[in-house]
Amino acid sequence: MTATAPDAGLAEQFERTIARDQRVEPRDWMPEKFRATVIRQIAQHAHSEIIGMQPEGNWITRAPSLRRKAILLAKVQDEAGHGLYLYSACETLGADRTDLTERLITGRQKYSSIFNYPALTFADVGVIGWLVDGAAVCNQVPLCRSSYGPYARAMIRICKEESFHQRQGYELLMTMMSGTAGQRAMVQDAVDRWWWPVLMMFGPPDRESANTAQSMAWKIKRHTNDELRQRFVDMTVPQAEALGVTLPDPDLRWNPQRGAHDFGEVDWDEMKQVVAGNGPCNAERIAQRKAAHDGGAWVREAAAAHAAKKAGRERTVA
Ligand SMILES: [Fe+2]
Ligand SMILES: [Fe+2]
User: Fold this and answer.
1) SS3 state of residue 70
2) Does pLDDT of 35 surpass 70?
3) 60, 151, 184, 283: most buried by Cβ count inside 10 Å?
4) Would you state the torsion angle of the CA atoms of residues 125, 222, 235, 161, taken in this order, to the nearest 10 degrees?
5) Residue 56: what pLDDT?
6) pLDDT given for residue 6 in this prediction
7) How much distance in Å is there from the Cα of 47 to the middle of ligand 2?
């Protein structure tokens, strides 16, 4: 056996863990491709949480009341926390956090396409909570059973907070819908702008999704993109009715044969453009992230100097 070839027993044990629906833990042997796939998925998720703070963060200073400001501040802070758990989960696989941030800033690692759209009015804050956090819940609840242990466990807490985010968005919109005609029009306008980009959050259609089959086999992913998109549409239609808004899709209707809603085709060219970096806010999001990272350099340096000094003192005492 060469040094690089895995011990046959270890590979078998890995396969058995997956087959029995048990969790792979950081100490366990795993195929390098599994490790790389999980790092990529968790890193993209972490980046999405951190970049996702920007569209709404922009409204914290302009929230219409102290109550709304406190809610929004707490929500955006939750997203920072999600990013931190997920970067930590990545580190259990040997990834380096500075390297992950570099990859984000230089465009070598992606984040969710949805955060490249602007939040134009305060109704967008409600619609982001209702639809974007709602889609995140749909995507992420099955990940609580992901085969990589630290990711699955991080997702349990994250999902609880995401569903709370979804509820606060819906409550904000309910309040606006019982307000003036102008407020109702703002809500409808925000729904019209966000609906299709939200459907893109589930990723490309199954027929074009390169990573789905392997990720499903390894139980990193539990449902395909199209299954989750369908589940989200079915969940959202009655909520839109209760709210009194129209979803901007003339082909959206209940199909009694399928027991599910039919809906129109997403503009996949638009999605490809946004993923490729040409969405309305891509450049702005990365520039802001880079500025924040550069601006925080002195904090990281100070923390490292403090840790080194403390370690030195402990050595002297010993
Ligand atoms: Fe989040
Ligand atoms: Fe959230």
Assistant:
1) helix
2) yes
3) 151
4) -40
5) 96
6) 63
7) 13
Q: Are the CB atoms for 41 and 50 separated by under 8 Å?
A: no
* Per-residue pLDDT tens digits for 261-291: 999 999 999 999 999 999 999 999 999 999 9
| Model confidence pLDDT, tens digit, residues 195-251 | 999 999 999 999 887 777 788 888 888 889 999 999 999 999 999 999 999 999 999
pTM of the model: 0.92
8 Å CB contact between 214 and 224: no
3-state SS, one letter per residue, for 107-131: CCCCCCHHHHCCCCCHHHHHHHHHH
| Tokens (6 digits) for 142 | 């099955």
| Contact between residue 39 and residue 62 where contact means Cβ atoms under 8 Å apart | no
C-alpha dihedral over 241, 247, 251, 255, to 10 degrees? -30
Q: Report residue 318's pLDDT band, with 50, 70 and 90 as the boundaries.
A: confident
Dihedral in degrees, nearest 10, Cα atoms 283, 289, 293, 295:
90
Average pLDDT, the chain: 94
Q: How far is 182 from 178, CA to CA, in rounded Å?
A: 11
Separation between Cα atoms, residue 195 and residue 270, nearest integer Å: 13
Query: In this structure, what DSSP letter does residue 148 have?
Result: B
Cα of 17 vs centre of ligand 2, distance in Å, is: 31
Number of H helices, E strands in the chain: 14, 2
Kindly identify the ligand whose nearest atom is closest to the C-alpha of 166.
2
Ligand whose nearest atom lies closest to the CA of 56: 2
Rg (alpha carbons) of the chain, rounded to whole number:
22
Helix (H) / strand (E) containing 261: strand 260-262
